[in-house]
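Attaching the record inline, Q. Sequence:
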Amino acid sequence: MRAQRRDNNESALVRLARQVGAKVIYMQAGQGCDFLLLSPGKISIIEVKDGRKSPSERRLTADEMELALTCQTLHIPYHVILNEGDLMRVLEQNGKP
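Structure, as predicted:
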């Protein structure tokens, strides 16, 4: 299995999520997302993209697109977050831990 490259902003976003009490479970390369974000009664599927990069550099990979489409079909939210504001919106939707 190939090593997963992490976006430059991912560690700061994970740190923020943990600071507010959410649990982060990292996913492996090829699973279609970067991590699961767990808060009481909620699980969010999170894909991090670096908001400083151009839109073409933030495209979803084939694995990410496949999972996003599966989630859409099953009415499961798949969140692509670019920055701390995006993460905080997801946490607020989940009732912030």
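The beta strands are 23-26, 35-39, 42-48, 78-81. The CA atoms of residues 32 and 67 lie 5 Å apart.

More tomorrow.
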